Amino acid sequence: MASKPPTDLETVLNSEIKEWHFHIYFHQRNASEHHAALELRDAVLRLRRDGAFVAVPLFRVNTEPIGPHPVGSYEIWVPAETFSAVFSYLCMNRGQLSILVHPLTRDQRRYDFVLLPRTPSDHEIRNAWIGPPFPLDLETLPVRSAEVPLQYSTLKLGYSATQSPFSLEERRRLGANIEAILSREKEAARAPPRE
């Protein structure tokens, strides 16, 4: 039986995903796809330079399958602070390319041992696709990392951010204000009463 999703504000905020990977896929022997993937990468780099969002493509572009990725690919690291802007841009401008989106947590892939519960994983349960999905070779990944894989901590974003944009009390006030405003909207669902 599925467990109830958590609704305790502090628990939810403490488990929030702070960093993401976007893997842009291209068939490595398809010159037009390879070119389109590199054009998209250059566009992301120009937009980052100009301040549209924070997104860090790795320097390396994989021209052959590597790790779990079955075709040519490259990775773009994105902190939660600009996830929406990058997701939106890639949705609108990916052309025919497929993009794997997954969070960065300790859980790389699912495990299912007799004594341990089945755990969610970044690459197979918590992932999303922009465009058609590709099959992944998950055996190349560890089940669980020792720590959350921090990237680009010098940017002080994502898991390396030094402060939250809102305190718990500020979030509660914001939520109460939104509920009050939406109480006048006929089509908006109401939050259930507090338990």
Task: List the defining traits of the structure above.
195 residues, alpha+beta, five-stranded antiparallel beta sheet, 4 helices, 14% strand, DOPA_dioxygen, DOPA-like domain-containing protein, DOPA-like_sf
- As a percent range, the share of helical residues equals 25-40%
> Measured on Cα atoms, how large is the radius of gyration?
19 Å
State the low-pLDDT regions, or none: 112-116
Please provide the count of β strands.
5
* Element-by-element helix/strand order: HEHEEHEEH
InterPro entries: DOPA-like_sf, DOPA_dioxygen
Protein name: DOPA-like domain-containing protein
Description:
By secondary structure, the protein is an alpha+beta fold. It has 4 helices and 5 strands. It has a 5-stranded antiparallel β-sheet with strand order 2-3-1-4-5, covered by helices on one side. The radius of gyration is 19 Å and the shape is elongated. The two termini are 22 Å apart. Pfam families: DOPA_dioxygen. InterPro entries: DOPA-like_sf (IPR023389), DOPA_dioxygen (IPR014980). This is DOPA-like domain-containing protein.
Question: What's a quick, concise take on this entry?
Answer:
It holds the Pfam family DOPA_dioxygen. This protein has 195 residues and is of the alpha+beta class.
